[in-house]
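seq:
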Amino acid sequence: MQLKDIGIMRTLKVLGYIQKAAIIVGLAVGTVFNARAAGTASNIAVSSGSGQTALVGVTLPAPFKALVTDSKGNAVSGAVITWTISSGNGSLASRSTTTNSSGLASDTLTLGTLTGNNKVVASTATGGNAVFGSEGTPGTAVSIGLSSGNAQTGTVGAPLANSLAVLCLDAYGNNSNSAQIDWTAGSGGDSFVYAFSSTSGGIATRPVTLGTVPGINTATATIKGTSLSYTFTETGVPGPVTAVLIVSGNDQVGSAAGALSNPFKVKVTDSYGNPVEGTQIDWTASTGGDSFSLASAITSASGNASSTLTLDKTFGLHNATANVDGTAIQQAFVATEGVDAVVAVQYSSSPQYVPADFMGLSYQKTYLSEPFFGDQNLPAVALFNKIGPGVLRIVAERAGTPIIWNPTGPGGVNGTVSTADLTRVAAFVKAVNWKILYGIALEKNTPAQAASEAEAVAKAFGSSLLGFEIGNEPDNYARAVYGTPPVAQVPNYTFQDYISTTPVYSSSGALLPSWPAFASAILAAVPNAPLTGPTGSFPTAIDFAASDQAPYVSLLTRHYYRLPTPAGSTPTMAELLVPDPTVPVQFPELFQAAASANIPGYRISECNSVAGGVGIPGVTNGFGAALWTIDFIFDNAVYQSTGVNFNGGGNVQSAMYSPIFDNGTSVTGIGPDYYGMFAAYSLLNPGAELLTTQVTPSPSTFSAYAVQQTNGTTEMILSNKDFNNSITVSVARPGSSSVANSLLMTAPSLTSTTGFELGGSPIQIDGSWEATSNPALPMVGNVAVVTIPPGSAQIVEMQ
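struct:
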């Protein structure tokens, strides 16, 4: 070690001794040490606690701490700190505090009830200051009220000009931020795009769209999770006029140089169909000499305005227009001078289309063993093709005499049905592209036999099988209806016996026929087999649809025959041609019964003009039956039946209401029903839309039906059932027309049994037919004028 290093070590030791001595002296004389450690307080500064944020009225979680030092930066203890609030309405825990040994003094602030900045100043006696800041934020919303947007008036279906706005306050009256608001629409149909918003600055807003019906709309804003709410009340008024609609008076027939009996009346609506009051309607006539009682009229509260047209001496069509003043919105009216009635054809508000297999024929089961239904019977094939595709129904059973299922039989044996018979009939059905509704006997049959027959039928007809009918007219089993003399087939048989799911026996111990037992057997043999029923009267169909068996059927079926009035009397042709009051009552009930039971639809699976089995000469085989057939087919279409099967089969002498007469092998004649079916089917092509027709005035002996074809052509049938008088009508269809042609369906009289013609030619027994008369109709503007002779019908085509 060098000398200089030794000198340094000695010096360090001396310093150590001096330091130890100073410590000893300090322990003995403490006051001398403190005075030398820190001077007088000269500085004060924020140590911690500044910049806190809390809800108003809440004590801050951390105290304010101030640091006091002397001029050399040493902490000064024992310094008195004065605390004062310079902004905000809060309160301090203490007005003054003293610094500790670390030079720190603290105080706690309870925020005031006002939002915003709170300032606290810490001061020393020497004049130094430290400023603490804190922020008071709004509390939870405890009230909600109107900010703006109440009591507005706006257009229906449109957003209001101003959004709805509510103000939410906390317990101290501060605007509460971030309150969650649920918006709900009340009465009137108004709506929100988004039903939630949050407050900003205490205010929450939401645009609202009024409902589409004029009147009061209410909407409520609710603080989420509470019952605190505010309800707005707004008023919707109709929008601008978008349409003018005909109320009444159109298509009138008037006299020369005279006022029409009824005024033309229109209704003005907005885009939602609401009537618009106070709109000026200007009435104009296109025929120079015509004039209106009022050239202009103001719509009432119901949106209506009217004026009466006086015709000049010009024969034919007279046009008039109702114009919404100052716009291009208008509605056209027509009146005709010199015709018996006006037929107005219009689109329906609910478009309706007829099923492709709507037409149908019903034959006794004995026809399965006869050669008539074979693809080699070309006349029958041709005649079926002219009214189809359709549905061929085979009646389930023959009263009193069973038709035996003999699967291995040779076929062609009367009173039996075999697989060979099914194969022949299936070839016929395929040739005509029809479906089959196949009846299986119930009264004199067993479930096992029914299942065996159903299995063979399903295999023979495949996709052509529309369904199985089990039994025929079970509601007549207990009545003396069939046979000579008539006897009951199953005495004391009831509807409950028919649908019983457990075996029921007669008083003699015989097992009664049961639809569920047969249905179960058929479904076991042919899984998912389509079942239909109950193939009887109207009450039976309604009761069946309401029973526990309804879920098993895919089609509700019933029979219909026009009953004479009074009951038991002999029907007449005049009575047959009067509209049947039971149809508009029962058919809607059938539709509703099927819908309520989730059955896809209903079908009139057997029908004809008059009940009784063999018909009435001059009535059921008279030409008027063709006009009745047309009416009945369109009744079915209007009341949404899925189809109609006319009872057929037999020779002219033995079955006077068969559409096609036959001898079991060949076609022998064409009945009036077939003419009616052929005429109706000429309109009811696949895709054709049913139109509505309004006849003014409307004679009870006249009917009109119309369809719109897919190519835009309008076709209609105009039927005059008056025995002695012709009727001339004007016909207007939707849109413009330039060409109209007609086919006349006629006979010597309504009771004639021969001499039927359509378009100047009869329908031949080999199925051939060609019109030789198809004249163009006179047109007056866009309107065709048609004369229908007494007891005839016109098929009219307008393009």
